[in-house]
């Protein structure tokens, strides 16, 4: 059945890929994005585009919408430490306005982009949804605050909602991929070395208690992530706030990522060893059990080489177009 969805942040990396998946399934999509970190050309063909802020969502949301997929947020951890007020205003204040607009328009279905950063330094891995939440940055804290806000909205006002706590999203979906500025994610940074835009990749810390001494992270292909959003829309129930981690359940070390990029690109990728960065946990790996049980989701692209190959194809496409 065709449904109509508002996709906030649909000109950004993850939002644009999810919007494309919704359109491919025959749904109608309106993207609401202020282009603060997004790109108008990333809005997939076939979507209606409103250039505007979620803080003003009440101007556009109306009862014809079946639900909202909410990606719009600031997500630079370092910036959030330097300018926490920017994160509270946009991520928390913006979502509060969005929820109020949904309430007045009677739009009662929401999928929210939460994050592994809500957990902070894990006590044990793989991380389950019942793990303590102790974010180590204002970014993580702002996302956790929104999770709590959504929980209250479900309990008090019958919203049906799913918070998806992403681990490291990576890869690309055809012409849609990662273009953060500044880029802080490992795979696109290593690919910049392969493209000759950066001389070497810095490896922060070689003395972690991991097999090769470098940090281990859980990389999830953005197209697998998009599938989880479609499943979430069907798995939600009025009055319930479901929280699911989204990761592969597999960890890859920084060295393994760099080595995979070497294999995929054929570039030697020089490394510079740097000291540990404060607040970087040794291992962050998701338990994907809840997503499997509650959403029926299993990642279909768990191989790191596939993730890197898609990201590389996208990076070269952008280089040719640049
Ligand atoms: N990329 C990851 O690895 C990752 C991991 C965990 C969680 N997340 C979450 O997923 C979501 C999407 O991340 P992304 O990597 O695609 O980021 P992104 O910066 O590419 O996309 C965010 C989009 O939201 C828009 N936006 C920001 N504030 C807005 C506002 N007030 N009104 C309207 N539009 C606004 C931006 O212009 C941008 O297009 C974010 O909420 C982020 O916190 C991402």
Automatic annotation (TrEMBL):
Coiled coil: none annotated. Residues 6-241 form the NAD-dependent epimerase/dehydratase domain. It comes from the Bacteria. Pathway: Carbohydrate metabolism; galactose metabolism. It catalyses: UDP-alpha-D-glucose = UDP-alpha-D-galactose. GO terms for biological process: galactose catabolic process via UDP-galactose, Leloir pathway. Pfam families: Epimerase (PF01370). Homodimer. This is UDP-glucose 4-epimerase.
